[in-house]
Amino acid sequence: MGCSCWPGSSSKRSTNKNISKNNSSNKSKPHAQTQASSEDELKVGACETVTKEKVAKDDQLSVDVKKLNLDDEISKDGKANKRAQAFTFEELTAATGNFQSDCFLGSGGFGKVYKGFLEQTNQAVAIKRLDRNGLQGIKEFVVEVLTLSMVEHPNLVKLIGFCAEGDQRLLVYEYMPLGSLENHLYDLPPGQKPLDWNTRMKIAAGAAKGLEYLHVKLDPPIIYRDLKCSNILLGEGYHPKLSDFGLAKVGPSGDKTHVSTRVMGTYGYCAPDYAMTGQLTFKSDIYSFGVVLLELITGRKAIDNARERGEQNLVAWARPMFKDRKNFSRMVDPLLQGQYPVRGLYQALAIAAMCVQEQPNMRPAVSDVVMALNYLASQKYDLTIMSTAPERACHHRQ
Ligand SMILES: Nc1ncnc2c1ncn2[C@@H]1O[C@H](COP(=O)(O)OP(=O)(O)OP(=O)(O)O)[C@@H](O)[C@H]1O
Ligand SMILES: [Mg+2]
Fold this sequence. Notes:
The chain is of the alpha+beta class. It folds into 2 domains: 1-175, Phosphorylase Kinase, domain 1 (2-Layer Sandwich), CATH 3.30.200; 181-393, Transferase(Phosphotransferase) domain 1 (Transferase(Phosphotransferase), domain 1). It is built from 18 helices and 14 strands. It has a 6-stranded mixed sheet with strand order 3-7-8-6-5-4, sandwiched between helices. A two-stranded antiparallel ribbon has the order 1-2. The longest helix has 21 residues, at 197-217. The chain is globular and about 60 Å long. It binds adenosine-5'-triphosphate and magnesium ion (MG). Magnesium ion is lined by residues 108, 230-231, 243-244. Residues 108, 230-231, 243-244 line the site of magnesium ion (MG).
């Protein structure tokens, strides 16, 4: 499998986000190489096409808000609630108490994220401050603003605004009080309760709905390209929303089945077909979704180098186990302490297995995944029955 043989020790997308750079088998990726120039074209929906010139980093700054007439693009939409607001750097400095460490929420490939408070609107926000090392961040900043300005769905994180002042680039999002899914699955601090089965299925179904919106309901449809647990943010009641659209690509149109592009994404989540050929399809996202679903079920990371060989890559570990139902109870997250519906587990694993199939055309379409997960999420597992003595359980059934 293409992904399993990649070098690298973390599932995090680093500043060097281009997986193909790390991939020693690059020579087997004709598209990744020959299509490099098409990657230089940044196409976002109906927005204009920007040809990225091969220029020095400072000049790259010119591929920015001004050139894209971003303000115009955004304000074309009459709806005030969809419009991304332009903030001054001063406003965002004030909102975060000068980016003080108390407000620090986490960091990723683009830079640090801080909690902030906007006095004008009485609103808590998350402010992502882009790290200026590397060209990719600038391009992704523009894609993020343009993409999120076009979309609106209860399962997609809302972009409130941005700041593009001097060489500062910041993104202002709605604040998601429960943080990322990653924080609720792994390395839980003492006292933090693990997610129960029902919540896991609710999160999976919500994330699938967000993806369905991008794939099916949006016109033109979008391939997300960066689906992973750290990009699923959680609101009150564990309501999930997809975040980070910096890698999003407009999907193939007409008779085309794929978009050719450099391989980008996060190690462990990237579909093997995309990794090998650079041909991006909607099914690349379905693969990544399958990995997330597997993480939710098993409590194992997509890539975990702390595990013994053979168990480090989640999909490589799970695939042979899918063949026999007898293995299923060994696959489930031990933190669930046996509190899951056996039938529900089988069904959830069956969906995950379909999503991570090697052949992209064998993977289901997102709407089928949504339908199946909606059903699973609606089948509430009664924790009171299983966590009590058997006599009590019998009493419940009468
Ligand atoms: N809107 C938000 N509300 C609350 N917390 C957030 C928000 N956005 C990000 N965070 C926090 O900041 C952390 C870092 O997010 P960020 O997207 O920069 O990195 P990442 O998702 O871990 O990696 P990548 O750069 O590959 O996306 C998240 O894990 C999350 O805990
Ligand atoms: Mg992220």
